[in-house]
Amino acid sequence: MYKNGLSYVASITLMLLTHLSMLGIVLVRSALPSGRDFALLVLAVLGLDLAGIVAFACYRQMTYTLDIMLLGILNMSLIFQSCFGSIHLSVKHLFFCVAALVSCEAGFLLARNHEWIRRQKKYIYLLCILIMLSIVLFTNKDRKWILIGSFSIQPSEFLKPCFVLLCAASIMELHKKVKLLFFYVSKDTLCLCGITLLILALQWWCHDLGSLPTFAAVFGCALICRLCYPRAKIHKTAIAAMCVVGVLVMIVAWMKAPEYVQRRLHVDIWADRYGDGYQQCEALIGIARGGWLGLGPGNGSMYKIFAYESDIVFCSICEEWGLLYAGITVLIILIMLTTVLMNPPKSYYHATMTVGVTAVFLAQMALNIFGSCNLIPFTGVTLPFIAQGGSSMITCGFLVGMLKAGQSPLFHHAASRRKPSAERGRTA
């Protein structure tokens, strides 16, 4: 931790008090849960807390802020998911919470060494292509996931950390430019633009337009980082040309959007309450029914609506826990994203990676919350850490590990050269 911030013990204590207070609310405000179900939930939450605290003590790093906040928000989501409709332990969500914590450490170990990532860049490109091929071969426009027994995998989720790593790893290649027509560009930038166009075209083809803003946000942030890169020396004409192209692409995409997207853009949900607007109408009614303090855990009726635990989970939380608690949950996630400002990244690679990860989370949160509240067209994008979904939880954990890598980078310094023999002789 930091001298001007909370100590490690104080942070752990605050996390435990938060979870204990939520469990107390479940006990007091819920519809008399059975002793066995409530005991299982308490054991799962506190057991995961204690396991995390023990794991943190087993390894040393610069900061544990993100680890503690990730563990805190995951256990909060476990309590939420275990209370929709009735009090029960959501074993499936517990499993993916543990998977997210493990994925966080994997992301931290893999992303902190920028030199190693640069050497593996061609394999990351290959991995992106393989993921896109799996989307083409094993999914379709109606089903965006691959079913394996009782589990489902959404390949597009795993594209996000790969894409962020590519954007960050290619930032150091900007000073290696070649002349193309009237502009000097780097080969790596051309490759990145090519993979970006492929990803956007694939998302358009499979009707997963909800993910388009997320990838566009990452690419936009990477582009801004390139414009600000000291050695980039990008001409003002090139910057103006990129802005014009970006605006034209957005206009064409808006005008040529598929029919179902156009319908979502112009639908009056209250006029079609039992048709296309049914889900959003029920979501808004759930928010209004919950008010500021909610109906109490397990006392809501949103669990009867499709995707109550994923796409419209924000509204489900508002109904049972209240708009105040749902807002605090979102605020905690935002604070977790801003903790990277406490320990600024040590290289341009880590800075670009951190900005890209933050763009992913902010775009997904905005799409989910604003879509659920009918402020923008409904997209079906999940709320990070809170919504149920294995692919999303694992990816979010990996992305938090990348954030942690930006705070605790790893640099391999070249070994000191041996002294000349004559100098060694004089030294002797």
Give a description of the structure:
This protein is mostly helical and 428 residues long. It has one domain. 64% of the residues lie in helices and 3% in strands. It is built from 17 helices and four strands. The strands form two sheets. It has a two-stranded antiparallel ribbon with strand order 1-2. Strands 3-4 form a two-stranded antiparallel ribbon. A hairpin with a 2-residue loop joins strand 3 and strand 4. Helix 7 packs parallel to helix 9 (212-228). The model is unreliable at 1-5 and 413-428 (pLDDT under 50).
Largest sheet: 2 strands, antiparallel
Strands of the widest sheet, in order across it, are 1-2
How widely separated are the two ends? 45 Å
Task: Give helix and strand order, one letter per element, not per position.
Answer: HHHHHHEEHEEHHHHHHHHHH
Shape: globular
**Share of β-strand residues:** under 5%
Helix content: 55-70%
Structural domains: how many = 1
Task: Specify the structural class.
Answer: mainly alpha
Estimated radius of gyration: 24 Å
| Total beta strand runs | 4
Runs in which pLDDT lies below 50 for 5 or more consecutive residues are 1-5, 413-428
Q: With helices defined by DSSP (H or I, 4 residues minimum), what is the helix count? A: 17
